[in-house]
Amino acid sequence: MNTAGKKQATHSDAFYKHIYTLFKPIFKVVAYVAYGVWEHHPRHYDEPVLILANHTSDLDFLVVATHISNHMYFVSSDHVTAMGLFGWGFKHWFDPITVTKGSSKASGVIDIMRRIRRGNCVLLFCEGRISHNGKSTYITPATAKLAKKLGCKLVTFRSKGGFFIEPRWQNYLNSGKLFEAGIVHEYTPDELAAMSADELLEHIRKDLYVDAYAEQEKYMRPFKFRHGVRDIIRYYDTCPRCGGLDTLTATEERVQCSCGWQLTMDEYGFFHEPEGKIRTASDWEKLQLGNYRSRFGRGDFPSENGVEIFEIGENFAQTPLSGDLLTSSAEGLEIGGLTLPFREMTPPEILSGGRRLELTCGKRSYLLHKEDACLNKYVELYKWAEEVRGKA
User: Fold this and answer.
1) What is the pLDDT of residues 121-134, one digit of tens each?
2) 166 phi/psi in degrees, rounded to 5
3) Strand order in 121-125's β-sheet?
4) Quick check: helix, strand or coil at residue 184?
5) Are strands 49-53 and 153-160 parallel, antiparallel or unpaired?
6) 71 domain residue, yes or no
């Protein structure tokens, strides 16, 4: 069951503001070391503010925190608060608004409204997940509706370059600097009231949109990729030459397929391969999604051995269930005797670069895991199946 709304007993806002003040110098130093960001004149607001930011890497919140001096509550996935000592500290010292990926976000929305109405600032990465291809991901209409309903000032914040510091297929930071970061726009309550939800959504999407490779074409800023392309097949598992699925292997220097195809990546994050089809992650993703859909359309559904499954409980507690073989169809997923119909499922999400799949089916939440696997194909199968069902 999704119990993200159930939390530990919390302290007062004053307590968390005090803790936040103590950590602000640390935030500033880490943002400088990790992203090359140092803001001398951060903005301060004398009113509650909803801050919407684009999402490029796991430590984006530090970049926002260096530009806006107010104490703010962070909206976070509950898997973050389950990350050992870091998660414990993040949960107990900052009291984040937690949601479960792949589930309804209703409890998180209610929590945001409560904290804003108490006079606080809240930071929301409204894309919900880090981009896989360098382009900003989908922002739902619910984001604009929430901003209008809150009735407070809205601030949009955008950073560029974070995609190359932490591409979605890895879960560690590379060495490099952001291209730029800062507040894009401030919307007063009166301005929000004068706009329709659709008009506001258009503004938000425009303010936060980033195409990492288009920006890199302008900056041509080098990055030191910590492990090269070693982990890229966690997300990209399709060969552009032969169309093979899960036929790729990777080292830090190159990706290669059993058919002989090879790919390398330069210090600017651009790909090089003999077919001339793949220069950016977006190129590869487009080809891969076409491959997936072609397979699904002819009834060729993926399966995976060695998959672990856990039921997620309160505070992201994980109870192991019987797993191993994961099979799929146009109707849903099956593993360990458990059937997970797509019609009862909220949109699933992947974590840890592609090795983990989080979903809610009915009133129960699950986590599927396989080291070095690319489980994103099951996310795309869900999307395809929903489209087919919608047309039926």
Assistant:
1) 999 999 877 888 99
2) -145, 80
3) 97-99, 72-77, 121-125, 49-53, 153-160, 180-187
4) strand
5) parallel
6) yes
CA distance 259 to 250: 14
- Both 37 and 89 in one domain: the answer is yes
Whole-angstrom Cα distance, residue 22 to residue 197? Answer: 38
| Burial status of residue 194 (CB atoms within 10 A of its CB: 0-12, 13-18, 19 or more) | exposed
> What is the gyration radius of the CA atoms in the chain, in angstroms?
21
Please check whether residues 194 and 326 belong to one and the same domain. Answer: no
DSSP states of 238-289: B-TTT--BS-EEE-SS-EEETTS-EEEE-TTS-EE-TTS--SSHHHHHHHHH
Under 8 Å between Cβ of 49 and 154: yes
- How far is Cα 275 from Cα 256, in angstroms, rounded to an integer? 13
Q: How many domains does the chain have?
A: 3
Report whether 179 contacts 220 (CB < 8 A): no
* Band of pLDDT at residue 105, cut at 50, 70 and 90: low
Return the pLDDT at 103: 52
- Of 297, 316, 336, which residue is a domain's last? 297
Of the three residues 263, 297, 331, the one that is the final residue of a domain is 297
CA dihedral over 26, 53, 90, 225, signed as positive or negative: negative
In this structure, what are the phi and psi dihedrals at residue 275, rounded to the nearest 5 degrees?
-75, -20
Q: What is the CATH number of the domain that holds 383?
A: 2.30.29.30
Compare 103 and 162 and report the one with higher pLDDT: 162
Q: What are phi and psi of 310, to 5 degrees?
A: -130, 145
Calculated CA dihedral for residues 224, 229, 234, 235, nearest 10 degrees? 90
Q: What is the pLDDT of residues 149-161, one digit of tens each?
A: 999 999 999 999 9
Confidence of residue 44 (pLDDT cuts 50, 70, 90): very high
- How much is the pLDDT for 7? 46
